[in-house]
Amino acid sequence: MPQILVHDLRKTYRIHERDPGVMGALRALVRPRHRTVQALQGVSFALERGELLGFIGPNGAGKSTTIKILSGILRPDGGRVEVDGRDPLADRQRHVGRIGVVFGQRSQLWWDLPVGDGFNLLRDLYRVDPLRFARTRDELVAMLSLERLLDQPVRQLSLGQRMRAEIAAALLHEPEILFLDEPTIGLDAPSKLAVREFVLRANRERGTTVLLTTHDMHDIEALARRVIVIGHGRVLADCAVDALRAQVAAAQRDGTGDGEGEGEGQDMAIEAVIARFYAMHGASEV
Amino acid sequence: MGPHHRLRHLLRPYKAAFASRFLLMLQYRTAAYAGFATQCWWGAIKTMVLAAFYGSASASAGAPISLEHAITYTWLAQGLFALLPWSGDPDVALAVRTGAVAYDRLRPVDAYALWFVRSAGWIAARVLPRVALMVAFAGLALPLMGLGAWGWQPPAGWAAGLGFAASMLLALLLSTALVMLLNVAAAAALNEKGINTLAAPVVIVLSGNLLPLALMPDAWQTALLLQPLAGVMDIPARIYFGQMAGAQMLACLALQALWIAVIVALGRVAMARTMRGLEVQGG
Questions:
Q1: Which of residues 147-176 of A touch B (CB under 8 A)?
Q2: Among residues 250-279 of chain A, which lie with CB inside 8 Å of chain B?
Q3: pLDDT digits over A173-199, tens only?
Q4: Residue A177 belongs to what H/E stretch?
Q5: Quick check: B102 and A68 CB within 8 A?
Q6: Tens digit of pLDDT per residue, chain B (283 long)?
Q7: Is the distance from CB of B186 to CB of B195 less than 8 angstroms?
Q8: B49 at the A interface (CB within 8 A)?
Q9: Nearest CA in chain B to A121
């Protein structure tokens, strides 16, 4: 039985709209205007224990929404989610104790606290055994080279340092499942490499199931054998990275893809493959 | 694991969250000194207004509390200024606005209790230094300068002192429960400003901070004593002065406890509803 099961997931958001300027603000006071956006319209997939899955798609495709629902933060409008046989929302407290989550755009460490103090607070929040915690922490500190950061307040870290600390923070309670939402966003090349290597090791050595979203196709190439492409709230492809490449190459030969530049067929750079794939499905953000 | 250990294990996250917030907030010393200076200034004005009021013989004859009590009440109110539920917890408001609230939802703990202990730590860390400075100023410095009549008098007796301490602890919990209502309202509106503006005028009057509730019209007294905000300031003060002693004191403490239970229950229901509809946006 798969560890993560997502079936026919649906979610709509209400977007508040307002014309710019003073008149727009006044008009919105009298008559607020909404527009509904279909973030997810029937997403289904399954993930086995120990898999490493890359989740890609243009901005606004529904990647983060899926992760938030899987984490038990957001309530879907329809469909079913099961993680280890549990409903993430109905059984939230037990569910979140077994997952680790990193949102690349937000911080889970406390801005004014030194990194080490933040780690200790997480130890208590997750009720981790102190001895076990010390071992896990030391391991993470060594792997992510955080030795010199432990005494520094989070607000004084660079983005790359903070992201490494964030990833360690998400793993202190040794979760079986790791959700990474754009963990390499804005990082320089060495930090990206460090994060990738770490994720790979966590997956291989600890058997942690990993689901990660990214816009960096090198992340996908380096990490994931399997990739899901999502666009307009639907799964456009769920296959091996190589299969995706082959699919695009075939379409190009048939003349469906508008092929010019950036290499041809199997030699195409991964970025080109994905861009071509989005174009084939009209999946870019509107 | 014995029952004692199990309880410690269960409470560990909440204790840690409280301690962390408390210790962090204690570091903001400049804010404490500034708050203290402001409260001294207002306290001085309020005591002089009270003295002028009591100075006219007709007023003081029928006054329900003596001038010394009214002055002590004023210093107490100034020292406990930060205890009152003026606004939601700025940390919670920030988390709601930035979406960091998503991480709060990821902790394997009771979401209401987690915010509650954090807000309690925030309030306690702001109150303690300010009240200590106020005791040093109005309780020690003023009498030493020969201005004892304008100072902060000790409690009516040992029983009153102990009852006051217990009542203060309940006042902290009650205030935190009320702050939690503001937190939840801020989370529901995704903005804390409106609700905070509404809270302040209600709190300043009904807690007794502006004027001891006993000095308000006789016909209102029962209602004023029974309403929840009396429990954050006025009830502890009445116990301090020995106006509420023995069975009456116990009834007052029970009233505070009752309001805590009611407001916590209300807050939990409101929070569960808000969190169901919460959409953590962006990213």
A1: none
A2: none
A3: 999 999 999 988 888 888 888 889 889
A4: strand A177-181
A5: yes
A6: 678 888 888 999 999 999 999 998 888 888 888 888 888 888 889 888 888 888 875 666 677 888 888 999 999 999 999 999 988 999 888 888 888 888 888 999 999 999 999 999 999 999 999 999 999 998 889 889 888 888 889 998 999 999 999 999 999 999 999 999 999 988 887 777 777 788 888 998 899 888 888 888 888 988 999 999 999 999 999 999 999 988 999 999 999 999 999 999 999 999 998 888 776 655 4
A7: yes
A8: no
A9: B16
Q: What pTM was estimated for this model as a whole?
A: 0.88
Q: Which amino acid is at A273?
A: V
Angle at B9 between CA B23 and CA B101, to 5 degrees: 55
B13's tokens:
């996250």
The owner of tokens 């994720």 is A199
Helix (H, G, I), strand (E, B) or coil at A103: strand
Question: SS3 helix, strand, coil % of chain A, rounded to 5?
Answer: 40, 25, 35
Name the residue with tokens 């000790």. B154
- B283–A104 C-beta distance less than 8 A: yes
The whole-angstrom distance between B1's CA and the closest CA on chain A is 13
Residues of B in contact with A124 (CB under 8 A): 12-13, 15-17
Assign B2 to helix, strand or coil.
Answer: coil
Q: How, if at all, do strands A52-56 and A78-83 pair?
A: unpaired
Alpha-carbon gap, residue B179 to B88, rounded angstroms: 5
Assess A110–B contact: CB distance below 8 Å, yes or no: yes
d(CA B110, CA B14): 9
Classified as helix, coil or strand, A78 is strand
Question: Are the Cβ atoms of B107 and A110 closer than 8 angstroms?
Answer: no
Q: Cβ of A132 under 8 Å from any chain B Cβ?
A: no
